[in-house]
């Protein structure tokens, strides 16, 4: 079995522009991979069969609803290849945390299977497959550290931003992404009617429109943000639809020095990480 790192992401920026007829939302977001990983193990056999086995924690489905299962099935169809595969997921990234764990496992699996089979599909083809599975999945097929996501978040453009050190605060509850978007109150006025994605790069700001509905239902998110700021973070933001909140620090030592106090004041797990380095 070969093992592959499957990184988490944060959203430095998430602006909701409109609700689409499909029920999805048009957004502008900035994705960033961070050095916090699940591990994906893959054993693959060219035996002319199409067996798929997923080994994962009990709280995660191992059947067709699993994004990794879907990735394998769609890869077989696109590449027109039969093979048996056993995928083992060692999970560290929490579910419902706004860190993209499932999407990352999906994208990592697509790239890994493609590599193990001699790269029958291009990266562009893999990204199209990923897009059909989930809006965040194409970012994890790319080898980019940062990307500007538009449309539903699946239309990507590589961008460059400064690296940071982060403290992640991981509450012991999950937030349903669909619920968060459904409860966002979109107001069409002022900046929202003229917002241009390029201004994210030209005039960068930390922002997450989903903090409104999530903090209303889970006020502890706001308290965690305040705690991080009081501990010396330059800024603090909820990632994606939550529940993870991250604080931005100048150095690793500043983040490490703040961990004990934040953990004591919030009661939640805290970890220090950074922007993912290029291999």
Can you describe what's shown?
This protein has 279 residues and is α+β, with helices and mostly antiparallel strands. It has 2 domains: 2-158, Ribosomal Protein S5, domain 2; 165-274, Alpha-Beta Plaits (2-Layer Sandwich). The protein has helices at 67-79, 101-116, 123-133, 137-141, 177-182, 191-194, 199-202, 211-217, 220-230, 252-266, and strands spanning 2-19, 25-45, 52-55, 84-90, 146-150, 155-158, 165-170, 207-208, 235-238, 245-249, 269-274. Strand 9 (235-238) and strand 10 (245-249) form a beta hairpin. The chain is 33% helix and 29% strand. The strands form 2 sheets. Strands 1, 2, 3, 4, 5, 6 and 8 form a 7-stranded mixed beta sheet that branches. The chain has a 4-stranded antiparallel beta sheet with strand order 9-10-7-11, with helices on one face.
**Count of DSSP H/I helices:** 10
Top-tier CATH class of the largest domain: Alpha Beta
Give unreliable regions as ranges.
188-194
Number of strand segments: 11
Strand content: 25-35%
What name is given to the CATH topology of the largest domain? Ribosomal Protein S5, domain 2
Could you report the average pLDDT, rounded to the nearest whole number? 92
Question: Helices, strands, pairings?
Answer:
Elements: E1 2-19, E2 25-45, E3 52-55, H1 67-79, E4 84-90, H2 101-116, H3 123-133, H4 137-141, E5 146-150, E6 155-158, E7 165-170, H5 177-182, H6 191-194, H7 199-202, E8 207-208, H8 211-217, H9 220-230, E9 235-238, E10 245-249, H10 252-266, E11 269-274
Parallel strand pairs: 1-8, 3-4
Antiparallel strand pairs: 1-2, 2-4, 2-5, 5-6, 7-10, 7-11, 9-10
Helix pairs in contact: 1-2, 1-3, 2-3, 9-10
